[in-house]
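Narrative summary of target 7.
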Amino acid sequence: MISYAPLWKTMKEKEITTYALIHKHGFDSHTLNDMKHNKSVTANTLETLCKILDCTANDVIEFL
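Modeled conformation, tokenized:
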């Protein structure tokens, strides 16, 4: 099972909101919604998030 709990924690620590991801960085709102429901996303999406947040994949996703 996939969990994006680390993403929400990382975003909070870096003070980046979902609004900023969507409007400032052009991140797709539907993808964020999928992530809120722990649905899978592409490796490209994870890479984009890591670049935006300046973090590693471990700071975005975990496998349970």
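The radius of gyration is 11 Å.
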